[in-house]
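Quick entry between incubations.
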Amino acid sequence: MSKTSPGNFFEDFSLGQVIVHATPRTVTAGDQALYTALYGSRFAVQSADAFAETIGYPRSPVDDLLVFHIVFGKTVPDISLNAVANLGYAECQFLNTVYPGDTLYAESQVIGLKENSSGKTGTVYVRTHGSNQHGEAVLSFVRWVMVRKRNETQMSGAATVPVLASHVSAEALGGACPPIAAEAWSNAHAGAPHRFNDYAVGEKINHADGMTVEEAEHQLATRLYQNTARVHFSQQAEAKGRFGRRLIYGGHVISLARALSFNGLANAFHITAINGGRHVAPLFAGGTVYAWSEIREKSHASGRADVGALRILTRATRDLSCEAFPTNEATPEQPGVVLELDYWALMPV
Amino acid sequence: MSKTSPGNFFEDFSLGQVIVHATPRTVTAGDQALYTALYGSRFAVQSADAFAETIGYPRSPVDDLLVFHIVFGKTVPDISLNAVANLGYAECQFLNTVYPGDTLYAESQVIGLKENSSGKTGTVYVRTHGSNQHGEAVLSFVRWVMVRKRNETQMSGAATVPVLASHVSAEALGGACPPIAAEAWSNAHAGAPHRFNDYAVGEKINHADGMTVEEAEHQLATRLYQNTARVHFSQQAEAKGRFGRRLIYGGHVISLARALSFNGLANAFHITAINGGRHVAPLFAGGTVYAWSEIREKSHASGRADVGALRILTRATRDLSCEAFPTNEATPEQPGVVLELDYWALMPV
Amino acid sequence: MSKTSPGNFFEDFSLGQVIVHATPRTVTAGDQALYTALYGSRFAVQSADAFAETIGYPRSPVDDLLVFHIVFGKTVPDISLNAVANLGYAECQFLNTVYPGDTLYAESQVIGLKENSSGKTGTVYVRTHGSNQHGEAVLSFVRWVMVRKRNETQMSGAATVPVLASHVSAEALGGACPPIAAEAWSNAHAGAPHRFNDYAVGEKINHADGMTVEEAEHQLATRLYQNTARVHFSQQAEAKGRFGRRLIYGGHVISLARALSFNGLANAFHITAINGGRHVAPLFAGGTVYAWSEIREKSHASGRADVGALRILTRATRDLSCEAFPTNEATPEQPGVVLELDYWALMPV
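Done. Structure below.
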C-alpha cells in the first residue's frame, strides 16, 4: 500500500460521509503579521489591541478571512486535491471570535454528489466546520468543487444537489462579534466618518487603489494557510496545464479585495457571513487587482443596537480600474471582473 | 458624498491643522520576525531577549526603523497620497522604547505650506508625533512632501517655510534607551570588538555586502507598515507613470542600508535620532543596494557614561560597490547613490 | 584598522580554535509563522499547541530545521563568508527541545584543516554547538567547507581530517523529544494512518508535489536565519560569478524537501539527527523542487516504547518528478537530484 496520498476522486466520496481534516493549527500574532504584510489590511479592530479593548473585545481578534483561509486550507488535501475547479461557496457564517493562541480544527461532511454527464468529473458539495481547542464552532460554510473521476467509463448515477440558501439570514449574523461600545468607537482612528446609517442600499463605492500580485506573494499566503492545491505551486507542472502558469488561490483575491475595500468601508470592521462567492475568472502573477462594492441590503443584525449589518457585493477586477464599476468578466485577453463576493459586514451604528 | 477618500490636495491643508491618523497598530513579535526576514538585520539588542536583558532592557525592543515605518505609514493616506515626491526628513527623535505588544498611534501638525511658482504643486511640512497606548511619545519627526494642487489655476499665496534644525542636538539624544550595563556587553555576541572610543570623526566604512531587492519584498514591507502610497503597488498604473514601474518605498532603502551597516557598525545598537534624510535617486526592483558610512561627529549623549553617540552619514547606492566611497548620484542609466541618511546612533563606551 | 569584516580565510583558522558567533537570537511565533509561509510544512506537533499538549509537550516546539538554520546562519560570517562550497554535514544531533521565546547561541570549534593541493583553497571542518539561554545544548553538528586562502603562494601544510561517524548511533537519538503519549496521537489530525510499524526498510515513497522557488522567497528565508553568505543576495555580484545568478541557500532545499515529505511521512514528526547531507547540484530561482524518500533503517530509539526511529534518505530534485525515484545528478542543462539528506526521524509506534 502506497504511503503517498493521491487525494480523493469523485468515487471516493459518499453522501453523509464525515472527514476529519489534518492539520490542527494554532493561529498566532506571527500569522496576523504575515496577513498584514500580504494584503496591507488596515481595519482598526484587527490591527490594534488597544482599539479592540476600547470597544469591548478582550484584545484584537484574528482577521476573519485568515480564519477562513486556514480552515479552508485544511480541507484541500481531502476535498479538492483533484479538483478541476472551485465552483462556489455559500452559507458561510463566522460563529465565534478567534484570538491569537487559539487552535483551529476542521471537518467536512459530504452533502451532495452530482456526476457530470461527460462521465469525467462530478461535483462534490461539502459543509465544512471549523472549531477551536475548546470544541466551539468558529466557522461553517458550504463549498462545491468539480472533482475528477477515477474511472471515466463507469457511471455512478450520483445526482444529489443540496438546497442552499441564497444568503445567510439577518437573524443568524453576529455570532463572532461581542457587544460593541459604539460610543467609544473613534472614527478618526478607524479611518472614516461613515457609520451604518450613512450607507444606502444601491450605493456604489470605488475602492480606488490597485495591487499587483507577485508569484512569491500568493505562494507565501497559500502555504501560510497550509493549502496544498498543486495548481498554485508548481510552475513545472502548470507549464503543461490549462493556463501554462500557476493559478493564484481564489482566497488570495478575496483578501486583496477586502483590504482594498478599506477605502470606502473602513468602519465595516467584521465579516460576519459570506452569502456566496464566485471566481469569475482566474488571476495570475503580474495582474493588478482593483475592487468596487455595492450595498445590497441593510439589516439590524438580530436587533442589536450596537452594530448594523451591510450586505455588500464586492467585485474584484484584473488590470481594470473600478471607476466605471465594471461587471464584464475577464478573459485571457481582456481585463475585467475576476471575483464576485456577496457578504454581510458589521458596522457600528 | 463619496465614501472613497481621494487623499488631501495642497489646498486641503491649513497652517497649524492637526490630523489624527488611522489605523492604530499593535506591534508584535510577528512584525519583528518579518522585519528580520526583509532586511536580515543582526543587531543583538533587537535580536535576542537574553542579550537585551543582560544589558538592562526588560526584553528586546522593537527595531527603531520598524517603529519609524509604522508611524510614517499611518500618515500617508492623509499627507502624501497625492504627493509627487518625498522631499526630506528632519528633527527625528526616538523618545521612548517600544516593545512587542505596544500599540502605536500617529498624529501630524501642519507646520509649513509653500506653493510652488508653477501653480501645480505645493510643499507641505508636517511634524508627526507617534505615541503608545499609555499616551507616551515614542517618536517625532518633521517631513516635507510636494503635493498636487486640486486647482492649478488659483494661487493660494501660501509661503510659510518652517525653520528646521540642521541636526538634533546631543542633549536631546537617548530618550528611548534605558541605562545600559556597558560592562555586561559582549562584543563577541554583538558581533564586533569596536566600541565608541574606537571610532574617529572622518572615518569611512565600507559595509561591503550587497542586497538585490525583489518586487514581492518591498511590497510585503510597505504593506506591513500599512503604507498605502500608490506608486509602490500598482504596476498597471505605474506603467503609464514617470518611471514605467513601481517605485520602492524610500524607507525600505533606509532599512536595507541600516542592516548592511552591521558590517562595520555592529555595536551601534540604537538609532536615537535622524538629523536628515534625502532620497537622492529612486530605487526599483532588481537593483542591488550597497552602503557606506562616514563618522561625522562624536558626542557623550547628555553626559551619559554608559553610551556615546556617533553622528553617521550613511549613503546607500544602487548597483555600485561602495569600496571607493562613491558620492555620485544615480541616474536611470548610471549606478550611484540613492540615499543619504544623517543620523545619531548610540554605542556602548 | 578597518571596521569591515572581510570574513576569515583558510589561514585565519587554527586547529582547536573556538569561535563564539554573533548574533544571539530569540525564536518567536513570528519566526515559526514565516517558516510555515516559506515551506507550507504541515506536521501537527509543530503546527498546533493543542495537538502537542495532547501528546506530552508543554506547547508546540519550534520546527527542528528552523533551529538548525538559525544556528547555522550564525556561523556563516565567521566560517563560510569566503567559502567556495559547502561540502557536507555530519553528526548532527538535536539535543533539547526549543520553544518560542528561547534564545539561541552558537559557537564552533575547528576540528580539521586540510589544504588543497592547488594552494588556492583549503577545507575547514568545524563542530558547531547551539545552546539556549539556560546554557543547555540544543543542537550540535559538524560541517566542512572549502575556503579561499589569503595567500595562494604560501603552503601551510595543514592536513588534519577528522574521523566522522557514518551516521548517528541509535542510542544517541531522541534528546529533544519528551516522552510521547502515543495512544493519544490522532492519526486523523496528524494526517496519515501509517505508524512506525507500517514502514519497511527499503520502502520508497514519492512525495508527489512540486514547489517552484522564487528569488524573494529564498532571500526572505535566508535573511530570517541571519545568514549573510553573499552568493544568495547580490545579483549584481553574482552576475559576474560562476553561475551568473544568485544561488539558493542549501538549507532552503532541505526545508522544502522536508515539507514535501509530509505526503508519505506525515507521522515522522521530529528530525532527531542528520547523518549526512550533500548538495549534489545547485538550485536557482524558477526551479521546481520535488522529493522522494527511502527507508534505510529502523530502530527503537534507545529502547523507547513511545516512538521508533526511521533512518530516511530523502532526495530532492530540480524540475524532475520523483515518480521514478531518480538518482541522477542535476546539471545546468539536465533536471535531476540536487540534495541527498540522510536523517533519523521519530514516529509514534
